[in-house]
Amino acid sequence: QVQLVESGGGLVQYGGSLxxxxxxxxxxxxxxxxxxxxxxxxxxREAVSCIDGxxxxxxxxxxxxxxxxxxxxxxxxxxxxxxxxLKPEDTADYYCAARWLNCPDYGLGSTREYDYWGQGTRATxxx
Length: 127
Description:
Blueprint: E1 3-7, E2 10-13, E3 18-25, E4 32-39, E5 46-51, E6 58-60, E7 68-73, E8 78-83, E9 92-100, E10 116-117, E11 121-126
Parallel strand pairs: 2-11
Antiparallel strand pairs: 1-3, 3-8, 4-5, 4-9, 5-6, 7-8, 9-10, 9-11
């Protein structure tokens, strides 16, 4: 049974940092791309970052470049999202998602392009 479990969310002040974790079971990350999406209240779910399954290349949405870093620990089947210089507009529920092999060629993709999802972890940034 494929499962993704996120953790690491919490409350942090403006300019602070959080590290989110996504642990997978039932499959191995070295053949799957793992992405982070987020959804703020009243907004659609949007892609934040993605890491390719085969070569580990990282991709980012423009609004997080230079502030967020995605990485993976393949033996632990875990992907991390290091978030720094956080802003109140980063407040959202953060979800990890998996798709076969690599991130979409043209960008991070939409929600329908990912096959498995976690339940999410909430990050709140106070001003």
